[in-house]
Write a structure and sequence with these properties.
Elements (H helix, E strand, L loop, with lengths): L10 H8 L30 H25 L3 E8 L5 H8 L8 E5 L5 H4 L5 H4 L8 E5 L8 H4 L16 H18 L2 E9 L2 H13 L9 H7 L2 H15 L6 E5 L3 H19 L8 H21 L1
Parallel strand pairs: 1-3, 1-4, 2-3, 4-5
Helix pairs in contact: 1-11, 2-11, 3-11
The structure holds adenosine-5'-triphosphate and magnesium ion.
The site of adenosine-5'-triphosphate (ATP) has 15 residues, from helix 6.
Length: 309
Protein backbone atom coordinates (compact mmCIF):
# COMPACT_ATOMS: atom_id res chain seq x y z
CA UNK A 1 0.00 0.00 0.00
CA UNK A 2 1.50 3.32 -0.91
CA UNK A 3 1.88 6.19 1.50
CA UNK A 4 -1.23 8.32 1.21
CA UNK A 5 -0.20 10.92 3.79
CA UNK A 6 -2.00 14.25 3.44
CA UNK A 7 -4.57 13.00 0.92
CA UNK A 8 -7.98 11.98 2.28
CA UNK A 9 -7.97 8.35 3.21
CA UNK A 10 -10.70 6.19 1.68
CA UNK A 11 -12.86 3.93 3.77
CA UNK A 12 -11.52 0.83 2.03
CA UNK A 13 -7.92 1.88 2.70
CA UNK A 14 -8.70 2.69 6.30
CA UNK A 15 -10.27 -0.73 6.83
CA UNK A 16 -7.16 -2.44 5.53
CA UNK A 17 -4.91 -0.37 7.77
CA UNK A 18 -6.81 -1.01 10.96
CA UNK A 19 -7.56 -4.68 10.27
CA UNK A 20 -4.36 -5.88 12.05
CA UNK A 21 -5.46 -4.16 15.26
CA UNK A 22 -8.97 -5.59 15.47
CA UNK A 23 -9.57 -8.49 17.85
CA UNK A 24 -11.81 -11.18 16.39
CA UNK A 25 -14.64 -12.35 18.64
CA UNK A 26 -13.47 -15.13 20.97
CA UNK A 27 -9.90 -15.00 19.57
CA UNK A 28 -7.23 -16.19 21.97
CA UNK A 29 -5.17 -13.07 22.65
CA UNK A 30 -1.53 -13.03 23.68
CA UNK A 31 0.18 -9.78 24.64
CA UNK A 32 3.79 -9.07 25.55
CA UNK A 33 7.04 -10.30 24.06
CA UNK A 34 5.67 -13.65 22.92
CA UNK A 35 2.73 -12.06 21.12
CA UNK A 36 2.56 -13.01 17.47
CA UNK A 37 -0.37 -10.74 16.74
CA UNK A 38 0.23 -7.46 18.54
CA UNK A 39 3.56 -5.65 18.50
CA UNK A 40 3.63 -2.46 20.61
CA UNK A 41 6.38 -1.07 18.34
CA UNK A 42 4.47 -1.51 15.06
CA UNK A 43 4.31 1.57 12.84
CA UNK A 44 2.80 0.46 9.52
CA UNK A 45 4.77 1.86 6.57
CA UNK A 46 5.43 5.12 8.40
CA UNK A 47 9.10 5.57 9.07
CA UNK A 48 9.14 8.99 10.62
CA UNK A 49 7.00 10.97 12.94
CA UNK A 50 6.73 13.81 10.41
CA UNK A 51 5.37 11.41 7.84
CA UNK A 52 2.69 10.23 10.23
CA UNK A 53 2.01 13.82 11.32
CA UNK A 54 0.71 14.71 7.85
CA UNK A 55 -1.55 11.68 7.80
CA UNK A 56 -2.83 12.50 11.29
CA UNK A 57 -3.63 16.08 10.29
CA UNK A 58 -5.69 14.75 7.40
CA UNK A 59 -7.43 12.17 9.60
CA UNK A 60 -8.26 14.84 12.16
CA UNK A 61 -9.70 17.07 9.42
CA UNK A 62 -11.91 14.24 8.18
CA UNK A 63 -13.03 13.48 11.74
CA UNK A 64 -14.16 17.10 12.08
CA UNK A 65 -16.25 16.84 8.92
CA UNK A 66 -17.92 13.61 9.95
CA UNK A 67 -18.60 14.90 13.42
CA UNK A 68 -20.44 17.92 12.00
CA UNK A 69 -22.74 15.52 10.12
CA UNK A 70 -23.11 13.25 13.15
CA UNK A 71 -24.31 16.26 15.17
CA UNK A 72 -26.67 17.45 12.44
CA UNK A 73 -28.22 14.01 12.03
CA UNK A 74 -28.53 13.54 15.80
CA UNK A 75 -29.37 9.84 15.58
CA UNK A 76 -26.16 8.07 16.60
CA UNK A 77 -23.66 8.68 19.37
CA UNK A 78 -20.06 7.45 19.29
CA UNK A 79 -18.57 6.12 22.51
CA UNK A 80 -14.77 5.79 22.49
CA UNK A 81 -13.39 3.62 25.28
CA UNK A 82 -9.71 4.09 26.09
CA UNK A 83 -7.89 1.57 28.23
CA UNK A 84 -4.16 1.24 28.87
CA UNK A 85 -1.40 0.73 31.38
CA UNK A 86 -0.01 3.93 32.95
CA UNK A 87 2.05 6.21 30.69
CA UNK A 88 0.68 4.62 27.52
CA UNK A 89 -0.47 8.02 26.24
CA UNK A 90 -4.24 8.12 26.76
CA UNK A 91 -4.31 11.86 27.46
CA UNK A 92 -2.10 12.80 24.51
CA UNK A 93 -4.17 10.61 22.20
CA UNK A 94 -7.38 12.35 23.25
CA UNK A 95 -5.80 15.77 22.84
CA UNK A 96 -4.38 15.16 19.38
CA UNK A 97 -7.09 13.06 17.83
CA UNK A 98 -9.91 15.36 18.86
CA UNK A 99 -8.11 18.62 18.07
CA UNK A 100 -10.16 19.10 14.89
CA UNK A 101 -13.65 18.47 16.19
CA UNK A 102 -16.13 21.00 17.51
CA UNK A 103 -15.71 20.99 21.32
CA UNK A 104 -19.50 21.26 21.70
CA UNK A 105 -19.84 17.83 20.16
CA UNK A 106 -17.43 15.99 22.44
CA UNK A 107 -17.41 14.97 26.09
CA UNK A 108 -14.46 13.40 27.90
CA UNK A 109 -14.90 11.51 31.17
CA UNK A 110 -11.97 10.19 33.15
CA UNK A 111 -12.94 7.40 35.53
CA UNK A 112 -10.96 7.14 38.78
CA UNK A 113 -11.39 5.08 41.93
CA UNK A 114 -15.20 5.01 42.51
CA UNK A 115 -16.63 7.37 45.12
CA UNK A 116 -18.68 6.18 48.13
CA UNK A 117 -21.88 7.18 46.33
CA UNK A 118 -20.86 5.32 43.19
CA UNK A 119 -20.10 2.24 45.28
CA UNK A 120 -23.69 2.35 46.55
CA UNK A 121 -24.89 1.50 43.03
CA UNK A 122 -24.49 -1.41 40.64
CA UNK A 123 -21.08 -1.29 38.97
CA UNK A 124 -22.27 -0.08 35.54
CA UNK A 125 -24.31 2.81 36.95
CA UNK A 126 -21.67 5.53 36.84
CA UNK A 127 -20.76 4.70 33.23
CA UNK A 128 -24.39 4.75 32.10
CA UNK A 129 -24.71 8.27 33.53
CA UNK A 130 -21.90 9.60 31.35
CA UNK A 131 -22.93 8.17 27.99
CA UNK A 132 -22.78 10.64 25.08
CA UNK A 133 -26.07 11.95 23.73
CA UNK A 134 -27.17 11.40 20.14
CA UNK A 135 -25.05 13.42 17.73
CA UNK A 136 -22.01 13.59 19.98
CA UNK A 137 -18.78 11.74 20.63
CA UNK A 138 -18.05 10.63 24.19
CA UNK A 139 -14.64 9.54 25.38
CA UNK A 140 -14.26 7.29 28.40
CA UNK A 141 -10.70 7.77 29.71
CA UNK A 142 -10.71 4.42 31.53
CA UNK A 143 -14.12 2.83 31.66
CA UNK A 144 -16.31 0.01 32.97
CA UNK A 145 -13.46 -2.30 31.92
CA UNK A 146 -11.62 -1.26 35.10
CA UNK A 147 -14.22 -3.47 36.79
CA UNK A 148 -12.62 -6.53 35.18
CA UNK A 149 -9.03 -5.20 35.17
CA UNK A 150 -7.89 -3.32 38.28
CA UNK A 151 -10.61 -5.04 40.32
CA UNK A 152 -9.49 -8.42 39.00
CA UNK A 153 -5.84 -7.74 39.80
CA UNK A 154 -6.90 -6.46 43.26
CA UNK A 155 -9.96 -8.60 44.09
CA UNK A 156 -10.03 -7.12 47.60
CA UNK A 157 -11.67 -4.07 45.92
CA UNK A 158 -14.81 -6.17 45.51
CA UNK A 159 -15.19 -5.85 49.27
CA UNK A 160 -16.06 -2.13 48.75
CA UNK A 161 -18.77 -2.85 46.20
CA UNK A 162 -21.58 -3.99 48.55
CA UNK A 163 -22.30 -7.01 46.37
CA UNK A 164 -25.12 -9.35 47.31
CA UNK A 165 -24.21 -12.84 48.48
CA UNK A 166 -21.47 -15.07 47.15
CA UNK A 167 -20.13 -14.01 43.76
CA UNK A 168 -19.40 -17.20 41.87
CA UNK A 169 -17.82 -17.00 38.45
CA UNK A 170 -17.73 -13.25 38.87
CA UNK A 171 -15.39 -12.40 35.97
CA UNK A 172 -17.21 -14.59 33.49
CA UNK A 173 -20.47 -13.09 34.63
CA UNK A 174 -19.17 -9.54 34.35
CA UNK A 175 -17.93 -10.23 30.80
CA UNK A 176 -21.41 -11.41 29.91
CA UNK A 177 -23.05 -8.41 31.57
CA UNK A 178 -20.72 -5.98 29.83
CA UNK A 179 -21.38 -7.64 26.47
CA UNK A 180 -25.13 -7.48 27.09
CA UNK A 181 -24.98 -3.82 28.09
CA UNK A 182 -22.88 -2.90 25.06
CA UNK A 183 -25.23 -4.81 22.78
CA UNK A 184 -28.16 -2.89 24.19
CA UNK A 185 -26.32 0.39 23.56
CA UNK A 186 -25.32 -0.62 20.03
CA UNK A 187 -28.93 -1.58 19.23
CA UNK A 188 -30.01 1.84 20.42
CA UNK A 189 -27.67 3.94 18.34
CA UNK A 190 -24.46 4.09 20.39
CA UNK A 191 -21.54 3.08 18.23
CA UNK A 192 -18.83 1.71 20.53
CA UNK A 193 -15.14 2.04 19.66
CA UNK A 194 -12.80 0.23 22.07
CA UNK A 195 -9.09 1.05 22.07
CA UNK A 196 -6.43 -0.66 24.14
CA UNK A 197 -3.17 1.29 23.88
CA UNK A 198 -0.64 -1.52 23.92
CA UNK A 199 2.57 -0.34 25.57
CA UNK A 200 5.59 -2.58 26.16
CA UNK A 201 7.04 -2.96 29.62
CA UNK A 202 10.40 -1.57 28.43
CA UNK A 203 8.77 1.55 26.99
CA UNK A 204 6.81 2.14 30.20
CA UNK A 205 10.13 1.97 32.09
CA UNK A 206 11.63 4.57 29.75
CA UNK A 207 8.65 6.90 30.15
CA UNK A 208 8.65 6.57 33.96
CA UNK A 209 12.38 7.39 34.03
CA UNK A 210 11.68 10.42 31.87
CA UNK A 211 8.98 11.59 34.26
CA UNK A 212 11.39 11.27 37.18
CA UNK A 213 14.32 12.96 35.40
CA UNK A 214 12.50 15.88 33.82
CA UNK A 215 11.26 18.37 36.44
CA UNK A 216 8.38 19.52 34.22
CA UNK A 217 7.17 15.97 33.98
CA UNK A 218 7.46 15.14 37.69
CA UNK A 219 3.80 15.97 38.24
CA UNK A 220 2.85 13.14 35.90
CA UNK A 221 4.65 10.58 37.99
CA UNK A 222 2.62 8.78 40.56
CA UNK A 223 4.25 6.47 43.10
CA UNK A 224 1.21 4.18 42.89
CA UNK A 225 1.91 3.67 39.16
CA UNK A 226 5.23 2.06 40.05
CA UNK A 227 3.41 -0.34 42.38
CA UNK A 228 0.97 -1.30 39.64
CA UNK A 229 3.95 -1.90 37.34
CA UNK A 230 5.03 -4.64 39.74
CA UNK A 231 1.79 -6.39 38.83
CA UNK A 232 2.52 -6.03 35.09
CA UNK A 233 2.03 -9.71 34.25
CA UNK A 234 -1.25 -9.90 36.13
CA UNK A 235 -2.54 -6.87 34.25
CA UNK A 236 -1.42 -8.27 30.90
CA UNK A 237 -3.21 -11.50 31.69
CA UNK A 238 -6.35 -9.63 32.74
CA UNK A 239 -6.21 -7.62 29.49
CA UNK A 240 -5.80 -10.79 27.43
CA UNK A 241 -8.94 -12.23 28.95
CA UNK A 242 -10.90 -9.01 28.51
CA UNK A 243 -9.88 -8.76 24.86
CA UNK A 244 -10.82 -12.38 24.18
CA UNK A 245 -14.16 -12.28 26.00
CA UNK A 246 -15.50 -8.84 25.12
CA UNK A 247 -14.48 -8.20 21.53
CA UNK A 248 -17.79 -8.57 19.74
CA UNK A 249 -19.12 -7.86 16.29
CA UNK A 250 -21.08 -4.89 17.62
CA UNK A 251 -18.31 -3.57 19.91
CA UNK A 252 -14.90 -4.85 18.79
CA UNK A 253 -11.63 -4.18 20.60
CA UNK A 254 -8.62 -2.70 18.83
CA UNK A 255 -5.12 -3.27 20.15
CA UNK A 256 -3.30 -0.05 19.23
CA UNK A 257 0.52 -0.21 19.07
CA UNK A 258 1.56 2.45 21.60
CA UNK A 259 5.36 2.43 21.87
CA UNK A 260 5.49 5.22 19.27
CA UNK A 261 3.11 7.88 20.52
CA UNK A 262 2.76 9.40 17.07
CA UNK A 263 1.71 6.09 15.60
CA UNK A 264 -0.77 5.39 18.40
CA UNK A 265 -2.46 8.74 17.71
CA UNK A 266 -2.65 8.10 14.00
CA UNK A 267 -4.05 4.60 14.48
CA UNK A 268 -6.62 5.87 17.00
CA UNK A 269 -7.75 8.56 14.55
CA UNK A 270 -8.17 5.92 11.83
CA UNK A 271 -10.21 3.62 14.05
CA UNK A 272 -12.57 6.39 15.17
CA UNK A 273 -12.86 7.69 11.62
CA UNK A 274 -13.71 4.18 10.40
CA UNK A 275 -16.60 4.05 12.88
CA UNK A 276 -17.89 7.41 11.67
CA UNK A 277 -17.57 6.32 8.06
CA UNK A 278 -19.59 3.19 8.88
CA UNK A 279 -22.33 5.37 10.33
CA UNK A 280 -22.02 7.73 7.35
CA UNK A 281 -24.22 10.42 8.92
CA UNK A 282 -26.10 12.69 6.53
CA UNK A 283 -27.28 16.26 6.88
CA UNK A 284 -31.05 15.98 7.35
CA UNK A 285 -33.19 16.97 4.37
CA UNK A 286 -36.04 19.32 5.16
CA UNK A 287 -39.56 18.25 4.21
CA UNK A 288 -41.22 19.93 1.18
CA UNK A 289 -43.52 22.10 3.32
CA UNK A 290 -40.64 23.54 5.34
CA UNK A 291 -38.67 24.00 2.15
CA UNK A 292 -41.56 25.96 0.57
CA UNK A 293 -41.73 28.11 3.71
CA UNK A 294 -37.99 28.77 3.47
CA UNK A 295 -38.36 29.92 -0.13
CA UNK A 296 -41.17 32.26 0.89
CA UNK A 297 -38.94 33.76 3.57
CA UNK A 298 -36.14 34.06 1.06
CA UNK A 299 -38.43 36.10 -1.21
CA UNK A 300 -39.28 38.43 1.63
CA UNK A 301 -35.61 38.88 2.58
CA UNK A 302 -34.72 39.65 -1.01
CA UNK A 303 -37.59 42.15 -1.24
CA UNK A 304 -36.31 43.91 1.91
CA UNK A 305 -32.96 44.36 0.19
CA UNK A 306 -34.64 45.77 -2.95
CA UNK A 307 -36.58 48.37 -0.90
CA UNK A 308 -33.35 49.63 0.60
CA UNK A 309 -31.58 50.02 -2.72
P1 LIG B 1 -3.32 9.95 34.65
O1 LIG B 1 -2.38 9.17 35.49
O2 LIG B 1 -2.79 10.30 33.30
O3 LIG B 1 -3.93 11.13 35.34
P2 LIG B 1 -5.13 7.80 35.09
O4 LIG B 1 -6.29 7.30 34.30
O5 LIG B 1 -4.04 6.81 35.38
O6 LIG B 1 -4.57 9.03 34.32
P3 LIG B 1 -5.20 8.21 37.90
O7 LIG B 1 -5.92 9.19 38.75
O8 LIG B 1 -3.73 8.13 37.95
O9 LIG B 1 -5.70 8.42 36.41
O10 LIG B 1 -5.71 6.75 38.21
C1 LIG B 1 -7.01 6.39 38.29
C2 LIG B 1 -7.03 5.08 39.02
O11 LIG B 1 -8.37 4.72 39.28
C3 LIG B 1 -6.41 3.95 38.21
O12 LIG B 1 -5.41 3.32 38.95
C4 LIG B 1 -7.57 3.01 37.98
O13 LIG B 1 -7.18 1.67 37.95
C5 LIG B 1 -8.47 3.35 39.15
N1 LIG B 1 -9.85 2.96 38.87
C6 LIG B 1 -10.60 3.32 37.82
N2 LIG B 1 -11.81 2.70 37.86
C7 LIG B 1 -11.80 1.93 38.96
C8 LIG B 1 -12.74 1.05 39.54
N3 LIG B 1 -13.93 0.85 38.98
N4 LIG B 1 -12.40 0.42 40.68
C9 LIG B 1 -11.21 0.64 41.25
N5 LIG B 1 -10.27 1.45 40.75
C10 LIG B 1 -10.56 2.09 39.61
MG1 LIG C 1 -2.27 7.29 36.47
Amino acid sequence: MENTASTPVSHADLRKRIAPFRVKPRAVVRLGDDSKDFDPGYRDQFVTRADAGLALAEGVRQLGEYQARLAAQSTYAVLVILQAMDAAGKDGTIKHVLSGVNPQGVTVHPFKVPSLIELQHDYLWRYQLQLPERGSIGIFNRSHYEEVLVVRVHPELLGNEHLPGAQTDIWKRRFREINDWERYLADNGVRIVKLFLNLSKQEQRRRFLDRIDEPDKNWKFNVADALERERWDDYQHAYEEVLSATSTKYAPWHVVPADHKWFARLAASWIILDALMDIDPKYPKVDPQTRAKMLEIKERLLAEGRHRE
